[in-house]
Amino acid sequence: MNKQGTIVRWDAERGFGFVRSPGAQAEVFFHIRDFRGGSAAPAEGLEVRFEEIHVGGKGPRAMAVSPLDYVDPRRPPPREAPRRRDGSRRPPPPPHVAIEMRTMALLVPAFIALLVWAAWTQRLPVPVVLAAPLVSVLAFYLYWRDKFAAQRHAWRTPEAVLHAASLAGGWPGAWLAQRLLRHKSAKESFRQVYWGTVALHWALLALFLYSAPAR
Fold it and tell me: pTM higher than 0.90 for the full model?
């Protein structure tokens, strides 16, 4: 159990002392070998943090005793969260964001290469391939319009329309809008349907290209 307290007794010759937490009735024993303070030495009145353990019937004992401002050099310093424009700390992104970024880093280049190959082999008309980026632009616009409407309590874009734009091939723009606009990115049910549209779009595209003869 991690606690904070003050060293109330210290015997430098014998190398042990006692620490007491605020509101605690009993003093907790600690030995010099359990003190972590760098160049600082234990002294009465020093405020410390410690881990209280219970061994057998000998009463509580303090381990890993260290001053409140002591930083263990064996532990790397915690990474500071990036600051916002107003100076406040930005919370770390959820774990799924890194996974999605790695996934998109693979899917988007593969999607572009597949469209170029489909146009080269004439499995898809060139105008259709050139229109693919426009679908992503449209999807991004729909997300932006929906967030704009949500902030002003206006008419919202139905989620079915957003998913239809992703299914039609605008899933890269939809994902970019989720990340840049911070819109629909925290709603788990929406994200699940979105990734379902991505998988379905890839499946339908692969099926069409497999069945379409090269010209």
Answer: no
First to last CA, the chain: 73
At residue 161, what is the residue type?
V
Domains annotated for the chain, with CATH where assigned, are 2-67 (2.40.50.140), 95-211 (no CATH)
> Residue 129 contacts by C-beta under 8 Å, 6 or more apart in sequence?
115, 116, 118, 119
Encode pLDDT of 41-88 as tens digits: 888 888 898 988 887 667 788 888 888 877 766 666 556 555 656 565
Predicted confidence (pLDDT) at residue 110 exceeds the cutoff of 90: yes
Sign of CA dihedral 128, 129, 130, 135: positive
For the chain, the average pLDDT equals 86
Give the contacts of 100 (CB within 8 A, at least 6 positions apart): 175
Specify whether the CB–CB gap between 139 and 173 falls below 8 A.
Answer: yes
**How many residues in the chain?**
215
Residue 197 CA, distance from chain mean position: 24
Question: How far, in Å, CA of 139 to CA of 85, rounded?
Answer: 28
Phi, psi angles (nearest 5°) of residue 67 = -60, 155
DSSP, residue by residue, 15-60: TEEEEE-TT-SS-EEEEGGGB--TT----TT-EEEEEEEE-TTS-E
